[in-house]
Amino acid sequence: MLVADGLVKRYGRRRALDGFDLSVAPGEIVGLIGHNGAGKTTFVEIVTGLVRPDAGRLQVGALDALRAGRAARRLLGVAPQELALYGGVSVRENLRLYAGLAGLRGRRRAAEIARVLEELHLTALADRPVGVLSGGQRRRVQAATAMVGSPPLLLLDEPTAGADPQTRAALLTAVRSRAEAGAAVVYTTHYLPELVDLDATLALARAGRVIARGTQEELTRHLPGELRVSFADPADAELRMSTTDPGADLAALLAAGRTPSGVDIRRPSLDDLYRSLETTEPQNAPTDPEPHDAAA
């Protein structure tokens, strides 16, 4: 549904994107993760047509998105990192506007608005001005504007930033539901447990490139976990060791004649994977983060 191939975006001598590759299939949720300045938001801005790349190819569905323009954008639903809502009018009127941009009219538009209001637990708020809503409620409204019309591609850029638990739960349920219905989803977040809840595949961005792509299991397999072993003899302190093969290390302890009273194995997590980015120096990285992409 989405194919980005070799995208490059320069700002002066710096490259916000430096050969960015990513493909997302229908029904797939891709968690796009990386530190600030990795290029995530610049990528979203290129897909939405707000920014033009200097090089590369972008396909949305069967369309060349860099040439098709408006036709390609009709296939997108976008929840930007910065809220883009009209505070002086109601939730329903905001959705009416976005549904109209998606090509919906009349009864079909009314039915779709009612559906997305229900899906994101917004029905009771439908006729309130957006400006009086809480931050979490506004996040749900922004997600609703992306989902109205059931676009086949969703771009959700930090959709739960600052959200309360109720908002987070409603959004994650809605995202899973859209993927199950066949939508391709690009989901950027710094809150990694969400990607576990969504059963997302992962794309790790670093210095304007995707440096790793796969499932959580595939990408954490090479990282060390932790083996914790306690012993019946109180004179023996609990043993903790970093390990990529806890079975072999435990077998070595047993072979040495030590008898554990308890064993705990902690497998590497997404947090470990994220932290590993901090110790990996990117090649051809810009000397300073690009101001335009500082929040990416």
How are the SSEs placed, and which strands pair?
Blueprint: E1 2-11, E2 14-24, E3 29-33, H1 40-47, E4 55-60, E5 63-64, H2 65-68, H3 70-73, E6 76-79, H4 91-101, H5 106-119, H6 135-147, E7 153-157, H7 165-180, E8 184-188, H8 193-197, E9 201-206, E10 209-214, H9 216-220, E11 225-231, E12 239-243, H10 246-255, E13 260-266, H11 270-278
Parallel strand pairs: 3-8, 3-9, 6-7, 7-8
Antiparallel strand pairs: 1-2, 1-4, 4-5, 9-10, 11-12, 11-13
Describe the protein's architecture and organization:
- The protein is an alpha/beta fold and 296 residues long.
- It has 2 domains: 2-219 and 275-293, P-loop containing nucleotide triphosphate hydrolases (Rossmann fold, 3-Layer(aba) Sandwich); 226-267, no CATH class.
- The protein is 33% helix and 27% strand.
- The chain contains 11 helices and 13 strands.
- The strands form 3 sheets. Strands 6-7-8-3-9-10 form a 6-stranded mixed β-sheet, sandwiched between helices. The protein has a 4-stranded antiparallel β-sheet with strand order 2-1-4-5. A 3-stranded antiparallel β-sheet has the order 12-11-13, with helices on one face.
- α4 crosses α5 (106-119), α4 packs parallel to α6 and α6 (135-147) runs parallel beside α7 (165-180).
- The longest helix is centred in the middle third of the chain and has 16 residues, at 165-180.
- Mean pLDDT is 86; it is low at 281-296.
